[in-house]
Amino acid sequence: MKPFDIQPLTQRFPFVHADAFGNALIVPAKNLVSIVEWIQASRLYLCDTLSNVTGVDFLPKVIEEEGKDSEGNSVKIKKNIPGYIEVVYHFYSIELKRGPLTIKVRSNGRDNVRLPSLMPHYRSAEFQEREIFDLYGVYFEGHYDLRRLLMWESFEDFPMRKDYVPPNDNEYEPIASRHSGGDA
Amino acid sequence: MNTSTGYAPRNYKIVKHKDKTLLEVAMGPHHPSTHGVFRMDVKLDGETIIDLIPYFGYLHRNHEKLAEDMTYFSTMPYTDRLDYLCSMTNNWAYALTVEKLANISVPERAEYIRVIIGELTRLVNHMLLVGFYINDLGAIGTPLLYALREREKILDLFEWASGARMMCNYLRFGGIREDVSDEWLASCNKLVDAFPYFLDEYDQLLTGNEIVISRSQGVGVLSKELAINAGITGPMLRASGVNYDLRKTDSYSIYDRFNFRVPLGQFGDCYDRFMLRLLEMRESITILKQALRDIPKGEIQSKVPPVLKPKPGEAYGRIESPKGELGFYLVSDGSVNPYRYRVRPPSLINLTLLRDLCIGHKLADTIIIFGSIDIVLGEVDR
User: Fold this and answer.
1) pLDDT digit string (tens) for A64-74?
2) Where in the sequence is the domain holding B366, given as residue range(s)?
3) In Å, what is the CA distance from A119 to each residue of A128, B5, B368?
4) What is the CATH number of the domain that holds B151?
5) What is the pTM of this model?
6) A40, A54, A94: residue with CB nearest B329
7) Is the residue at A150 inside a domain?
8) Does residue B49 fall inside a structural domain?
9) What is the ipTM of this complex?
């Protein structure tokens, strides 16, 4: 299977650019649906199947950059990079026997993440988006039936997030726990 | 051409009768025909299904989170537990993705052994499916035990090669754990030579059987377009007539060296799905014969650092597992653990259309539609 030529797509949508590793496209969330409609219909892509949908969590981090202060001395400047959740889509074309076309969408921040759903276009997104909602807490707008898939309904947290701490609901232990934050 | 409304979930028009009330039945999680712990809440009008809601997660252990807290290699035995009937192909898909991520090559002999055990796994899986399918149809016992008898012989081969019958943990990054002996290959050859006789026996017993035909033909018909749109893969997609076998189209490993055909169904009903598995087993036999004939001598493991630290990057690897497209998506940040580890489970995604296939059929048909999809709950729930 040959990978797609991404040139026509980046020409038509100039705001789309490749990610740091060079084999995926980063798409703004507001343009996702229009791009997907285009690759579904365009003779160049004909992406008729959405093979894989998944989320990746990136925590906010602080990086140090070389910079100059007001007097011209070189100092290290701390820069805050906000965290985000990335949803990764792998499209294939069974008709043309080509693929994958990897598209990534990044959220704004990690609280109350809302992204457009692809379920109206691809049924295969139905369970996979429910799973991402369940484990990462991404609300897919336009999904027909957005419920938790694997965890139970009354569960409140999102367990695949990098900062998730499982609740300490172990049984009572008569001697003090050796682990910090453990039961008495 | 796909439209945004064409593949929306199907809704059945509820005809309200004055004296009729809807009956809601919870099938599972301990129903014997759900092949594990799986529940579907079925709404019935008389005996006709008007709605079906599947519930997952009884076996959920957050496999992906566990794998993100471990080194790349420590996850290998865990992948056995995904689809516990086909541990070898799970190992293979994971090893293939890590090899893609870290640019590891695999020696010739190891590739051949991978193909041999991969196809033996396909035989194991399809035999179990066919046996349990007939079991679900009501022929309790005999055909299933015939299938289990043949499976047992293959499991003996697995035990000989890897030390375990089901949780094999046999593949390594850049090779396999242990070389197979000449006696192993000779016994494998013997098994492969005898296998078509078993298939003939099975064909004679079942494929023309009147009950099998009347119960499964025209039941759970899946159209080509909907199957592609819903990401259905594997035998279920091919039963709907789509020529899409990753061994041919994506040609991973050394599958481009073998000469085999891809069987296709015509109607996409339960009978096609059942027959397709029987036909695929015959093609697996031809692949096995060629691989056993051509297998070279030599190394079985390429040089891999003891602690694997792939460069930052990502990889999506997939193989044609017996149930469909089994994919792994790995993101590396340069440390010893994967930053993101994702399994694309064919069983879960093939279940997407369970509701659409069942609506309008009788309650008893749910069981055979469900059986013909071929799932393992260890992989659905992860």
Assistant:
1) 877 777 777 78
2) 63-381
3) 10, 10, 27
4) 1.10.645.10
5) 0.88
6) A54
7) no
8) no
9) 0.85
